[in-house]
C-alpha cells in the first residue's frame, strides 16, 4: 500500500466535497495545488468519459508529471487522445494539450515506455516530436515498435510511421535497419541515402546481399562507393552473381550433391504391387511428370540423372534420349528443365543449352529459349545474355517458339523494368494477327518485367489487347491470363489501381468482373486490408450468372491480401474453411490454391489435413488443385508426412493418368532442391515481401484456376513461373573477405518481443548448429558466441561477420 499516493488513500470519499469547494475558491496558488490533487483523485473517481483528470491538470500548477507516478501519466495520455479528437471535430485550439503531451513524452521516454509514447503521438498526430526525444538507449526499441505497428495502421498513416522510423535509424547510424524500411517502402531514393550516408565498405556489402535477396534492380554510382573495384564487387553481389556458388557450398556442406532420379522421390518400393505395375508403363504423360520432378529436385545443382548425363555413358541415358521420350510440347518442358537444373549458373547453363538451338524440332528450340530465361532468373548480368539470345526469336513464325522466347524474357528480367524488352514486346499485343496464346504470354511477361511499377504504357497496351478479343475468344481460358498481366503491374500498389479498375468496367461482360477481382486482389496483395477482404468475400457469396466465373480470383485474392501477417493469415484459413462448406463447386476448386498461397513452404498441420481430405474429392478439379497445393505447402521442406500422403495418393490414383500427374508434380515440389529451397515470398523475418517471388507464385496459381486447359494441357510450361519464387532457405555466414566461415548458431522458433520490457529472448526451443544451416518457416537464428559481430540485423541468407575486438577467449 506504500506506493499508493496519500491523497488517493484518504481523500477518495471526499472527492465530491473537494470539487464543490474548489469552485468556490478565489484564484491563488493554493487553488492550483488543489487542482493537482483533484486531478490525481479523478484517476479513479471521475465518471467514464468526463476527462476530469485532464481538466484539473490543465487548471493546476503544472508541476512535474512524474511525481504522481506512471499510472497517472498513462491515464492522462488516454484522456488527451479523447480530448484531442473532440477538439479536432470542433476545430478548437490545442496548444495547452501540446505542452502537456511534451511533458508526458519526456517522462515516458525516460522510463522505457516507448510504445506508450508512440501510441500517444499517433493519437495527437504529432509523430515528428518523437525524433527529438529518442536517444541512443531507446531508439532501437522505439523503431521496432514503429515498424511492427505499421502493419496494423491504415494508409497513408502507415507510411508516415515508417518514415519516422527511417529518420530515427539514419540519425543513430543504424543503417541496416534504415535500409530495411527503405526497401519496405519501395523508395529507392531512401536506399541511395543509406548507401551515401554509410562509410563502412563491409556494411555496404551486407546491404548489397539484402538488395540481392529482395531482387531489386539497383545500380551503384560513384557517390555510393568511390572505389571502382569495390563498386564492381558490390554490384556483383546485388546482381546475385555469387548465388549459385553459395548454394552449392551449402549443398556440399549438408552432403546432398549426389543427383536424385524421379524414382528416388516416388519411393515406389514402399507401395503395394498394383501401383508399381501401373507406374512401369512408359507413357508420355508419366515421362513429362518425371521431367518436372527431376527439374524441381535437382534445381540449381548443375547435375542430374536424366538431362546432364554425358551421352557416351554406359547407361545410354544421354539428355537427347530423355528429351525424345517426351511428346511435342513435352519436349519444350524437358529442354527447359535443363535451365532449372543449372539455375543461377549462367555461364555453364548457356553452354549446355546451346546444343538445343540447332535442333530441327520447334518444341525443343522453344524449351531451350525458356531454359535461357530460367538460368538467368534472379541473376543480372552486365552483358544481358538473355536479351541477346532471345530477342530474335520473339518474332518467329512458330507460336510455341515465340512463347518460349517471350516467357524466357519475362522470367529473366522480372522486376527489371527493361525498356528495350518493352519496345520489343508491346507491338505483339497490338497486332491483331497474333495468336491468342502468344498475346496471353506476352501480357504476363510484360506484367512480370514491370511488376508493381504501375507503368501506364504497358497497362494501355494490355487493355487494348483485351478490347480487341472476339466474342468466341472470351470463352478461351487463355484470355484469363490478360487481366493477370494487368494485375501484376499494380502488385501491392493499392489506390494507384483505381483509374485502371474504372476502365476495366467497360470490358465485355464475360471478363469484366473477372478483371475487376484480379486487379483488386493484386493491388492490395500483402497489405492485410480487412475492408478489401470483406469486399472479396462478398463477391464469393454472390450467385453467378451463366458464363461468369470471377469467384476464382476473388478466393485467391482473399489469400493474397491476408498473407501479410500471422493473425490475418489464421483468420483467412478459417474463412476459407467456411467457403469450402457453403461455397459452390467453382469456389471449392480455388480454395485449395488459396490455402497453398497462405502456407507456402510452411506445412501447417490443419491446412495439411484439409488438403488431404480434398485430395480424395469426387470432383477431379478440386482433387487435382488440392494435390498440387499439398506440394506447394510442403515445397522444399522434405516434409515426411506430406511425402507419405502423396505416396498413398499415387497408389490410390494409379489408374487416373491426370491425377497421377498432379501427384508426381507435388512430390517433386515437396523435395524442391532436395529440401534446400523455399517458395516463400516473405523473407528477412517475414518483414519483406519479394514482389517478383509473389508475382511468380500467383501467376502459377491463376493458371491453376484453368487446370485442365493450361497445367494439364499444352501449357504445362507455366510451372516454370515458380522459379521466380525459388530461393535457398539458408543462413550462410561469411568473413570479411566474403569467404564461407563456419560459426556456431542457435536456430529456433522466432518469438515476438515487440514492446516487452528488458531484453527478452528472441527465439525459443533452439538447437545449436554450425553454419551454413537451413532455416524453416518461422525460424530465426542468432550467433551462439560473441567472437563475431553480425553486420545484418537478421541472420538469413548471406550474413557478413566481423571479429569482435573486445572478445576474449575463455581460459
From TrEMBL:
One of its GO terms (biological process) is regulation of protein catabolic process. One of its GO terms (cellular component) is nucleus. The keyword Chloroplast does not apply. Gene3D superfamilies: Leucine-rich Repeat Variant. InterPro entries: 26S_Psome_Rpn1 (IPR016643), ARM-like (IPR011989), ARM-type_fold (IPR016024), Proteasome/cyclosome_rpt (IPR002015), RPN1_C (IPR041433), RPN1_N (IPR040892). Keywords: Proteasome, Repeat, Ubl conjugation. The keyword Cell membrane does not apply. Residues 754-807 form the 26S proteasome non-ATPase regulatory subunit RPN1 C-terminal domain. Pfam families: PC_rep, RPN1_C, RPN1_RPN2_N. It comes from the Eukaryota. Component of the 19S regulatory particle (RP/PA700) base subcomplex of the 26S proteasome. The 26S proteasome is composed of a core protease (CP), known as the 20S proteasome, capped at one or both ends by the 19S regulatory particle (RP/PA700). The RP/PA700 complex is composed of at least 17 different subunits in two subcomplexes, the base and the lid, which form the portions proximal and distal to the 20S proteolytic core, respectively. Acts as a regulatory subunit of the 26 proteasome which is involved in the ATP-dependent degradation of ubiquitinated proteins. Belongs to the proteasome subunit S2 family. This is 26S proteasome non-ATPase regulatory subunit 2 homolog.
